[in-house]
Amino acid sequence: MAKKGAPKTPKTSTFVWEGKDKNGRKIKGEVNSTTVALAKAELRKQGINPTKVRKQAVNLGGGGGGKIKPLDIAFFTRQMATMVKAGVPLLNAFDITAEGIDKPAMKNLIMAIKNDVAGGSNMADSLRKHPEYFDDLYCSLIASGEQSGALETLLDRIATYKEKSEALKSKIKKAMNYPIAVVAVAFLVTGILLIKVVPQFEEVFAGFGAELPAFTQMVINLSEALQEWWYIVIGALVVFGFSVKQILKTSEAARDKRDRLVLRLPVVGAILDKSAVARFSRTLATTFSAGVPLVEALDSVAGAAGNVVYRQATETIKEDVSTGQQLQFAMRNAGIFPNMAIQMVAIGEESGALDEMLSKVANYYEEEVDNMVDGLTSLMEPLIMAVLGVLVGGLIVAMYLPIFQLGSVV
């Protein structure tokens, strides 16, 4: 608590400005200061001749701003990398990037970072104020770039890393969505048949006055139950889905069990396995090429693994490497990495081009994932037809079975 009579700290505000640079070009942007006069003084220190300066409140992620997605961060990184590489001053690069973005929340985020940098903070510290958008790996690489004077190089590598990572995530979502789509369509078609079609046959069977076949009776009982309790069935499915989501969100043990289970799934498990190898290689290549020591780089890889099996394996590899063991042997001892990846790492260690070899491994397995997802798409089309055929065919057989039996008796 401040002492009574202590001087109040001046409140910092955001000022929007327009002016000219040293070459007479018109530029504009925002700056943090306490008064208009101090804002103008700060701009003049930066070699800017301000013509207009007015106060404006910063509303980061305000209402209707739209949710900031990882693809937005990837686009921001690529734009910043391009601007800085072209020799545009960092503060101007923020302004130009923000102007090219339509999403208000993302624009406000960029300007908040820019204002922190303009106020004297380095870029890494400014990014760390927004951990929901910039993880430790991102901030650490930016810090390395600032310390080594190679920010443009690191921004380019981070941009490539983010773009490749998001592309890989998109492929994995596509691979996971197809099995879910098959199950959803199967449930939907079966539900419609049981609620709308089977009752029509039930009225016909009521006039037979004979005992129905067991299979037909089972389908009719299921139809009657669904007609009467459909809302309970839907409610139970919603509750079940919500419960599973909450359990996975709150329980690390449940998430670990899920991660191990999905790797054992047919087709999809192989895709997830290869994607984990690609993510491991891409993250390690990016951090190691940025000058991060291998042991520290493996820490970042473990955090970005995306699967408990590969996270634990990476932590074991890190322990082995920290005791002096070569990366290729540590990966082989982990027992989950393919021989091709291990041999490429061995070549990289022997030739002193580990980051380059890891990038090639990542490219190879990303392409493998792409091909497998395309193959899964082709596989799922006949599978959907087969599943629907079995369900619809089974219901048709159940409904026509009493008619067939009646015909044989006659």
UniProtKB/TrEMBL annotation:
InterPro entries: GspF/PilC, T2SS_GspF/T4SS_PilC_CS, T2SS_GspF_dom, T2SS_GspF_sf
Localization annotation: Cell inner membrane
Domain Type II secretion system protein GspF stretches: 76-199, 280-402
Pfam families given in the database record: T2SSF
Membrane topology type: Multi-pass membrane protein
Residue stretches spanning the membrane: 178-198, 229-248, 383-403
Domain of life per record: Bacteria
Keywords carried by this UniProt record: Cell inner membrane, Cell membrane, Membrane, Transmembrane, Transmembrane helix, Transport
The keyword DNA repair belongs to this UniProt entry's keyword annotation: no
Predominant localisation class: membrane
Family of this protein: Belongs to the GSP F family.
Protein's UniProt name: Type II secretion system F family protein
Source taxonomy: Bacteria, Pseudomonadati, Pseudomonadota, Gammaproteobacteria, Oceanospirillales
